Amino acid sequence: MRSFIYLCISFLLLALNTQAFTVNNIKSSSVNFPTLSTPIVAEEAAVTSTTLYGKKAARAQGNDRKNKTERVRKQKDDVIEVEAVVIESLPNAMFRCGIEGAPETQPPILATISGKIRKNYVKILVGDKVTVELSPYDLTRGRITFRKR
């Protein structure tokens, strides 16, 4: 039992890369204990990677997206997108918009602000050119999804 304990301790010390040791009080001569003359020192490799992780990577992707000139959005199947001009500002973030290129007899659209424009506090004034999504079920109401600069 004692030789087994000495064997376990020696392997543990080998694993920890400690300095040399010797065991003098060994009763059993059948067990050979390894001795280390010099400790093993691992070379420290310098990390020169430029890979970004976490928040920095997300910010870098955001900067790449800002540099794009064209606007990329998912296409919705059941909406009609039209360009319009804001004619009148109404309470509760509602706007009366006239469709560009439409005849004068067509009534203006009643449009509200979409969630992303509302969330980012985009100010829409009378005379602004906007993109309006119309539902195919009611062509007199819409949602303002983008304000042109």
Please, could you describe this protein's structure?
This protein is α+β, with helices and mostly antiparallel strands. The protein has two domains: 1-46, no CATH class; 80-147, OB fold (Dihydrolipoamide Acetyltransferase, E2P), CATH 2.40.50.140. It is built from three helices and five strands. The protein has helices at 2-15, 55-66, 115-119; strands at residues 80-90, 94-99, 109-113, 129-134, 141-147. A five-stranded mixed barrel has the order 1-2-3-5-4. The chain is rod-shaped. Residues 18-23 and 42-48 have low confidence and may be disordered. It comes from Chaetoceros tenuissimus. Component of the 30S ribosomal translation pre-initiation complex which assembles on the 30S ribosome in the order IF-2 and IF-3, IF-1 and N-formylmethionyl-tRNA(fMet); mRNA recruitment can occur at any time during PIC assembly. Residues 70-149 form the S1-like domain.
